[in-house]
Amino acid sequence: MLFYLAGQTSFGNRGCEALVRGTIDILRETVGPTTQFLVPSVDADEDRRQWPDHADYGVRFVTAPTMPSSLKWWCSLMQRLPGMAGTQPPLPHYSAAVEADLASVDAVLMIGGDIISLDYGIHSLYMWSRLIDRARALGKPTYLWAASVGPFEANGNVVTAMRSHLRGYKGITVRETTSAASLAKDYGLPVKVVGDPAYRLASVQPRSELGVDMERCRGAVGFNVSPLIRKLFSEQGGGRSLEDTVLDFLRWLIDDQGRKICLIYHVDQTEKPDNSDLAYLRQLAASLSRPDRCYVLPPGLNACELKGVIATLDSLVAARTHATVAAFSQAVPTLSIGYSRKARGLNEDLFGSIDYLVETKDLTLARMQQTFNRIQQERAGISATLREKARLLREAALESAGMLRG
């Protein structure tokens, strides 16, 4: 079989890379080792460097879709003109290369995690949902794969459109019970909760040529924060900047707790410099001015190598979902910085609570210190829970393939 993996355009986002690699692992195990995949990319040469043996896994990088002008204009008008309430977006054609790729495959999987939501704005939601609708118009079966879905209630137009869009999938699996409950209650859709495909991702030692100082990582507190969180934090108000809050927390870890810090990026996209964790973390390290106790990972690590580094940490504080999943899957105690329903849902499903989560709207120095201390006090129980749940979720990730049968 030949699958098109929609919802990702760049391995510069290691979360996307983790989803692609994990999904391919699942399908090669369940469908068969000769299964083939078209993986969209905005920079295929760079993605090939990040995954040198991709061809051994049946992968071919193809042209990534871009948003058609007609759809872009429609989204902009809908946001500005109340009179457009209730209207639905056009079904555009995508580029000739993308249309040819869609026409060539046996099925299309939407694997982009939380793309079918408003987390990244209405333009992103319709870019991807209408691509799936276009694949259906070409006669291709489509599947929503291990997703976090919604919420959509902030925009009535979106609710109407998504009701139709979601019903068009041949099957839907989700990675947390909050999405499953919402889809069942609000949309009447039967869905299955499965493990995130990233639980299947390999954990490997970084390549020597990347120059990672593993001694500075081993036993450190890993820290990840993203420009996305900065934007959401500023929208919440509260007087202090995210940078001030984060720097105070890092100084507290170093000076009061005697810790060493490893700053870990999980997104470093050359095509989206404003979304680069690495650039942002380097700025924080320069402001902290403690090179003896604070180490920034060098560029170029792929998702498997970042997971290998995370395995050596004492604990992790992270905003990016798949940085936390890499830690969860290796029993590393983790403080999640949450900005959407997915962080809350993943924590609730793992621990039955959000005791180890600080939501962006509540991100203060005191809350971070309190939650970090609690994690340290309860670390033995946390690690035991994660070891057991990670084993189960690794197996549960295979269950997405069940909806493809027949």
TrEMBL record:
GO molecular function: transferase activity
Pfam families named among the record's database cross-references: PS_pyruv_trans (PF04230)
Signal sequence extent: none
InterPro entries registered for this protein in UniProt: Polysacch_pyruvyl_Trfase
Keywords attached to this entry: Transferase
Residues in Polysaccharide pyruvyl transferase domain copies: 13-340
PANTHER family: COLANIC ACID BIOSYNTHESIS PROTEIN WCAK
Protein name: Polysaccharide pyruvyl transferase family protein
